[in-house]
Amino acid sequence: MKETKSTCPYCGVGCGVIIESQGDQITGVRGDPDHPANFGRLCTKGSTLHLTATAEVTRQTRLLHPLLRDQAGMAPYRISWDSALGIATDRFARTIAEHGPDAVGFYISGQLLTEDYYVFNKLAKGLIGTNNVDTNSRLCMSSAVAGYKMTLGADAPPNCYDDVNHADCIFIVGSNTAWAHPILFRRIEDAKRARPDMKIIFCDPRRTDTAEIADLYLPLQPGTDVMLFHGLLHIMLWEGWVKPDYITAHTNGFDALKARVRECTPELVAQTCGLKREDLFTAAKWFATSASTLSLYCQGLNQSSSGTAKNAALINLHLATAQIGKPGAGPFSLTGQPNAMGGREVGGLANLLSAHRDLANPAHRAEVAALWGVPSVPEKPGKTAVEMFQAAADGEIKALWIACTNPAQSMPDQSTVRRALERAEFVVVQEAFLTTATCDYADLLLPATTWGEKTGTVTNSERRISRVRPAVAAPGGTRHDWVIAVEFARGLEARLRPGAPTLFPYDTADATAGAEAVWNEHRESTRGRDLDITGLSYPVLEQAPQQWPLPAGASTGKARLYEDGVFPTADGKARFADVAYQPLAEPRESRYPFSLTTGRLRDHWHGMSRTGTLGRLFGHVPEPTVQMHPQDMDRRKLAEGDLVHVTSKRGSIVLPVQASDEIGLSQAFIAMHWGGEYLSGCSSTGARLAGVNAITTSAYCPTSKQPELKHAAVKILKAELPWTVLGIAWLPAGEFLRSQEELRRMMAVFPYASCVPFSNNVPLQDATKQERSGILFRAASHEAPPEEILQRLENALGLAGSDTLRYADKRRGQRRSMRLVRAGEKEARLDAFLLAGDTSAEAWIKALLQDQLPAQAYGRQLLAPGAKAPVALPARGKQVCSCFNVGAYAIEKQLSTSEGTEDQRLASLQSSLKCGTNCGSCVPELKRLVRAMFPLQKVA
């Protein structure tokens, strides 16, 4: 057994992990107790990382060799690396020669390492001469970047995680921290438990799990954040809670802002935001008068057509009350991806250059050109994410290189994105997973390494740089992302700069030495800058992760910025941002009366290319739904599980409706993860319906160019699709991907279809039980499909053999297929089934299969339409704890016999059922269940 210290590849918390491996196989993972981001803790996603890297998962989902597709619609075939790089070089060189450097574009990812990012940035801006290099971080962090620069002078989050232990007030806004940054939320829970008098304000249109810890919840209307922040400042001014001395000594521009917020009275703000007037005063008082106030914010502020204004207006509050530059105080943007911060550091955005330099600044361009040894860096602004795909759809960009991201799922306005991928003359996808939707559009597929195989660095939300280390060798023909970019760049150099010395003198044969050389060049670019890391090296980082800045001569990084009140601006003063409140880009109106927002699920990450390989991570939220307020459902005569059309100006999708008290009236919610790989269908015109981003808007903030993924105006109407089908099967080892691919092809046959992994949810720590994985396929249509469609479904689910029991009534469009397998001399268990035309028996037949219960006693009931279970099955309820597979019914039963305070009942629950004792991700939901049964005393 070998142990390797590395970093988790999921959210921006940047947790340290210890990877356990044997030979070329990762066998386990646990939190690194010495890493200052998590001190050994991991969330549900992090604690299952090793299960996403098993030999079986790798064999079925990984892209392991270069593949070339000769023409659209044809299956790609394997080629050599030399051929792949030669083809890529030739196509890009010809495109540049015929149409100019701006005819190509690079779309990269916040999940790349800093070294990868640096090489891609140099390749595009230094070698090719185009600024058309942008990243999916544009979709999550660019408004935070713009907000920091507008007010504080630099893209530098001034806080550290330890600030939650010093804050007297924490203002969480636009962030479901409990799910999006769970290990940081564990630290907030610890701080609240240690200091119960600390005030926590939670501000969000949805009452998510994060609200469970709040002393004050502000359910503002979508998009009204700027009005709220201006209103709070109005109250602070009226009550004398601002700090004039700090404002005079350390800021500029307050008079203009003061005039701006004069009209933002409590009455107007309460009406606009949908909040209580007295809650506004409480929030303003706690924020301004607490000894230290810390703001935590994320996509609710960033993913908006007013994203920069929202960020800046919140920072205004910190400057006006001197809540910055001291322990426990400051505006703390929580990074969405594991290395979105590292990408910003190297200038991996279309408007940035290395070390936080601005592309628009001639001096900055000259500095980078000198560092790289090129005559100049192009001054023409590059295309940002939305602009890049629009340009490709319009035919302006001819060749696209996409690395480590899945725009055919994650970008808004999918019809435009997919048109861009189809129209582009040459599309390269550099990817670890063959199963992403974008791979279907690639002309050339290049296999990259991923977590557990890579070496380099990442930077988390608190500016802490950590090493990423390989635990196993790269599988198949995969190569590191920076190596692929370097080898392509060298081939392109021979065409664009014949005879000139290479701009990429890095050792690709020795991954660690080469990555370190890239790092050292990046490090030199930061000398004298706000993020100076000239005191950092790989050997230093081998000892411990470090925060920047850490200039040469320093022994440790700086935990907090601006403690001296000096900011990185021309005069050393911060700037108040006089920003106006603007309504949503697409406000609700009579034709589209609902505000749709998107967000994360607790146990999944982005497009689920990694987490989607584990059926167990679908236990908490097993299938895609749209959530609505129960009153809205009643008014529209919608019942739980009814199928509905969710329609915006860009398209329509169909999915089941779910009642949720988290949602406000006239609002709706769909998780961001449900792309066309999991939720799809076909419209009456034959158009493919592909996931939630088929209906989101590409409207973006004019300053940050970040799209308004958090809001779209939609209408929700019941879908009349009376014929339904449900198929579930345990799949033999090696059959999952084949079955999944066939079922996903069949999704386009139906107006509604979903296809998700399925699991028996064995407790994570239970080595005595076998984890089984399968697949769940659900669809609906206006009428029964042709017989051949049902046969294809049965074949994909392993129901075509002679061991399958069948019932069919063609006149009624009904069909049942059941496969039972022997589990002993007298016992049989259900291994797969299909219910078509009548799925009313779903609950008990599904439980029979999932819990692997003896099935021989059910006999003909399995095939009889509408039959009820002859024997009562044990109730499970919704899964709450995925680590120990604990459901709501077991929790409620245990609570009914418990005594004491709610804190004591929670402790008893954890002791008896173990839920909430491993990763802790389910603790907020456990608290909510306790409070629902015993509402008199709040759980700490």
From TrEMBL:
Gene Ontology biological-process annotations: cellular respiration; nitrate assimilation
N-terminal signal peptide: none
GO MF annotations in UniProt: 4 iron, 4 sulfur cluster binding; metal ion binding; molybdopterin cofactor binding; oxidoreductase activity
InterPro entries attached to this UniProt entry: Asp_de-COase-like_dom_sf, BFD-like_2Fe2S-bd_dom, BFD-like_2Fe2S-bd_dom_sf, CT_Nitrate-R-NapA-like, MoPterin_dinucl-bd_dom, Mopterin_OxRdtase, Mopterin_OxRdtase_4Fe-4S_dom, Mopterin_OxRdtase_prok_CS
Keyword Manganese: no
GO cellular component: membrane; oxidoreductase complex
CDD domains in UniProt: MopB_CT_Nitrate-R-NapA-like (cd02791), MopB_Nitrate-R-NapA-like (cd02754)
Domain of life: Bacteria
Keyword 4Fe-4S: yes
Alphabetical UniProt keywords: 4Fe-4S, Iron, Iron-sulfur, Metal-binding, Molybdenum, Nitrate assimilation, Oxidoreductase
Domain 4Fe-4S Mo/W bis-MGD-type: 1-57
Cofactors demanded by this protein: [4Fe-4S] cluster; Mo-bis(molybdopterin guanine dinucleotide)
Entry's family note: Belongs to the prokaryotic molybdopterin-containing oxidoreductase family. NasA/NapA/NarB subfamily.
Family matches, as PANTHER family: NADPH-FE(3+) OXIDOREDUCTASE SUBUNIT ALPHA, RESPIRATORY NITRATE REDUCTASE
Official protein name in the record: Molybdopterin-dependent oxidoreductase
